Amino acid sequence: MKLFINPSKAEWLSLLQRPTKSVEAIEETVNQIFKEVKDNGDTAIKKYTTKFDGVALENNIVSKSEIEEASKLVNDDLKAAIQLAKSNIEKFHSAQKTDKVFVETMAGVECWQEKRPIQKVGLYIPGGTAPLFSTVLMLVVPAQIAGCKEIVLCSPPNKEGKIANEILYAANLCGVTKIIKVGGIQAIAGMTFGTETIPQVYKIFGPGNQFVTVAKQLATKYGVAIDMPAGPSELLVMADESANAAYVASDLLSQAEHGSDSQVILVTTSQPFADSVSSELEKQLAVLPRKAMAEKAIANSKSIIVDSNETALELINEYGPEHFIVATTDNEFFVDNISNAGSVFIGNYTPESAGDYASGTNHTLPTNGFSKAYSGVNLDSFQKSMTFQKLSKEGIQNIGNAIELMAEAEGLQAHKNAVTLRLNDLKK
Amino acid sequence: MKLFINPSKAEWLSLLQRPTKSVEAIEETVNQIFKEVKDNGDTAIKKYTTKFDGVALENNIVSKSEIEEASKLVNDDLKAAIQLAKSNIEKFHSAQKTDKVFVETMAGVECWQEKRPIQKVGLYIPGGTAPLFSTVLMLVVPAQIAGCKEIVLCSPPNKEGKIANEILYAANLCGVTKIIKVGGIQAIAGMTFGTETIPQVYKIFGPGNQFVTVAKQLATKYGVAIDMPAGPSELLVMADESANAAYVASDLLSQAEHGSDSQVILVTTSQPFADSVSSELEKQLAVLPRKAMAEKAIANSKSIIVDSNETALELINEYGPEHFIVATTDNEFFVDNISNAGSVFIGNYTPESAGDYASGTNHTLPTNGFSKAYSGVNLDSFQKSMTFQKLSKEGIQNIGNAIELMAEAEGLQAHKNAVTLRLNDLKK
Q1: Binding of NAD(+): at which residues (chains A, B) (predicted)?
Q2: How far is CA A151 from the centre of its chain?
Q3: In chain A, which residues have their Cβ closer than 8 Å to the Cβ of B345?
Q4: Residue B340 — φ and ψ, nearest 5°?
Q5: Which partner from A44, A51, A152, B165 sits 20 to 30 angstroms from B101, CA to CA?
């Protein structure tokens, strides 16, 4: 880890800088594939599945029997673990349901807000060697609770034309309505425009590489919403001598193994503690299967010594970490005052892995400082708030004159007329 | 209005199509101005204020004395109207506050969700002949209730270097922290990067012309969130013979006066009623000050006759109107079953103007079919949801094994280790 001791505020900006990637080279490819999928539907989908996934599929819809077969191949211990995680995620996201907000703002002026489900959602689950079935839980469970009618899941096929067993098992367990073997840019384009086999959706969720990220951004230009912009995953740990250096090192490593561009930061008020974490890191790194990758990320990671909890808090809020672990003698201070973080993990027995898999909170979180303005995925991500209002005769009489005056001052005579007409009738 | 009688579903898509505008020509200009503002700060801001607003400003920050002077020039009746509207908007948005959601998902696994304010928000209010002070209320009131610390308002100066009195009065009344005379692309760029005088913000809200719209889209590429993508304003009225044709016509006209690209649609089960609305429209149009503009919009508007309320509902959900007025014998059917609409206005005495100004609901709403996935602006738009979790020793023992199994199955050994280390210690 690179060590920084009491950096001045002037240095914070560069110290907390995330790596930025130019995506212009990618944009052209993404635009091209979007155009082809829009024009040629499944023909284009097939072409790019063959090209990028190296497999020619007769049929890209996962069948019932495929799901059944895959489910048999997931072992019972893992099934039980997945079910435990699902149950916790359900409990936490169900609790996020909100009642209708009803207010009679003035006599006869009834206003209310209701949340209604987004009817059609698309979930993207990356392929590759490690099947991210945990993300299936994190996206499908709240979509179900929200009441989304169509829940489409796209994931790329492997060279044998299959999706990982665990993904199929989890998707079916949670209630996905359609699973499609399609990945990358072509999957996002398919859900944006709809094809013969891929339904058009209103909002797209899920992680992915930079091609998927750019494709999701492009989807928004065509009127499809997305969960949030994405960047490499991040963890910031705030710890002091009350923390366990071995635990902290293990948490930093669990972030580092995500990839060499992972962001890993330790903030502490104690240099001896930082040193202990460093030596623990070396010890634990040595035996990791993904050692090469984690080593690179750790080399880029930062250990920042600050003079007080107050300075630490200010720095952390400036950074806005995706994951924030706090293990200090005064956790409450940080919990009460943190403004910008995706998810917060408190104390020595709350590793990031807990929230990644099974505590019940969602692991789809804002990276890249987006926690300053964005929520992580939650029940509301699958709903939209709608407002309703109903005025009685008394209601329009109570606010009519104010509307007339304001509309007139804004130069909108027809807005005024709509009220005047009604008020005049009521005077008769 | 163009009349369509029982159009087939195959025709719906083209019938409900919004006009699409190519923005490529604009994008280049927007990119250029963003680059200049990023590189040269206030120098670039001044340059473009001179160029686009035709005024060279010594100082672009609105002073306290300017606000006081402007407030004196707003007449007392209008002040009272603004205060009434503000009070209703406050009541409705305050009621949207949510409590912390706390769940112990398993023994020792405490999870909670809290909403915290976005610290720095930027509001854009267009200039022009009609000062949109109502939008000031709609954005500043919820920002205040949410607890946003910095509330920056940008609005272009007129040729005399001034912002409309009503805007300054409303902004000050509601608690804007800084008012800056800057408009268009350069205002959005300024809030995106920050300049010597313009604070950098985390999220930008507010309406604007297509230049502002494209600039807001570009801001998202630099990590700044926006309220929602924007398109021309829309109204769909569902009415039957129980409705008042004159009222319906006045509502359609209040939408039409927004501009020639306004979307105005009447859906009805009764052709005689559609005819009555048509003749009412002609009568009312004749005396409108903005007649020319409204006439164009009305010429492009559609009157769609359908065979039943069920068909009407399906068509309306397919369109997803920004504003939806329903005045029928069975309003409940529509209220209960509408999936996609920004704001719903119920019955004969609830004109769209009510929500535009004073009922208490927000008038910043999703256009262009975005109501299928986006909420209108509400209290949550100024907050983000953060999650917290705290595991006790018992907690990690309850879910630790599930995490280990899942992490291993995803090939993430370090995620597993972070749990194993802790579990092993607890076994000692």
Answers
A1: 124, 186, 209
A2: 16
A3: 389-390
A4: -125, 100
A5: A152
Looking at residue B424, its pLDDT comes to 97
In the DSSP assignment, the letter for residue A375 is: P
Span of A143-147, A196-200, B125-129, B306-310 with lowest mean pLDDT: B125-129
Q: Is B356 annotated as a binding residue?
A: yes
> Which residues are CB-contacts of A299 (< 8 A; sequence separation ≥ 6)?
none
Asked if B200 and B194 touch (Cβ cutoff 8 Å), the reply is yes
Contact B345 A421 (CB under 8 A): no
- The answer to whether A225 contacts chain B (CB < 8 Å) is yes
In chain A, which residues have their Cβ closer than 8 Å to the Cβ of B392?
Answer: 349
Q: Is A93 a catalytic residue?
A: no
Cα A291 to the center of its chain, rounded Å? 27
CA dihedral B106, A251, A10, A19 (to 10 degrees): -110
Domain end point (choices B180, B212, B228): B228
| pLDDT tens digits along A301-351 | 899 999 999 999 999 999 999 999 999 999 999 999 999 999 999 999 999
B225: Cα separation from own chain's centroid: 13
Closest partner residue to B98 among A98, A348, A403, by Cβ?
A98
Residues 136-195 of B with CB under 8 A from A: 166
In the three-class reduction of DSSP (H, G, I as helix; E, B as strand; rest coil), residue A114 is classed as strand
Per-residue pLDDT tens for A206-229?
Answer: 998 889 999 999 999 899 999 998
Range 292-351 of B in CB contact (< 8 A) with A: 294, 317, 335, 338-351
**What is the residue-wise DSSP string for B145-207?**
HHT-SEEEEEE---TTS---HHHHHHHHHHT-SEEEE--HHHHHHHHHH--SSSPP-SEEE--
In a domain, A378, yes or no: no
B217 is in an annotated binding site: no
Tell me, yes or no, if A250 comes closer than 8 A to chain B by beta carbon.
Answer: yes
Strand A109-117 to strand A383-391: parallel, antiparallel, or no bridges (unpaired)?
A: antiparallel
Examine the domain organization and report whether B191 and B263 are in the same domain.
no
Range of the domain at B331: 2-20+231-360
Same domain, B75 and B218: yes
B200 is in an annotated binding site: no
Q: Which two tokens stand for residue B287?
A: 């005396």
| B385 is a domain residue | no
pLDDT at B297: 82
CA B195 to chain centre: 26
Domain-located, residue A385? no
Chain A residues near residue B346 by CB distance under 8 angstroms = 388-390
Contact A417 B254 (CB under 8 A): yes
Last residue of a domain, one of B228, B254, B270: B228
Q: Which residues of chain B have pLDDT under 70?
A: 20-21
Contact B369 A223 (CB under 8 A): yes
Which amino acid does the sequence have at B220? T
Are residue B318 and residue B333 in the same domain, yes or no?
A: yes
CB contact under 8 A, A229 and B220: yes
Burial A394-423 (b: 16+ CB within 10 A, else e): ebbbbbbbbbbbbbebbbbbbbbbbbbbbb
Same-domain check for residues A271 and A346: yes
Q: Are strands B178-181 and B150-155 parallel, antiparallel or unpaired?
A: parallel
Interface of A with B in 12-31 (CB under 8 A): none
Residue B96 to residues A103, A111, A113, A344, Cα–Cα distance (Å): 10, 12, 8, 24
Structurally, how many domains does chain B consist of? 3
Choose the closest CB to A346 out of B77, B134, B388.
B388
Say if the Cβ atoms of B345 and A389 lie within 8 Å.
yes
Per DSSP, the residues of B250-306 read: HHHHHHHTT-TT-EEEEEES-HHHHHHHHHHHHHHHTT-TTHHHHHHHHHH-EEEE-
Q: Quick check: B414 and A290 CB within 8 A?
A: yes
The single residue of A280, A295, A322, A352 carrying the catalytic annotation is A322
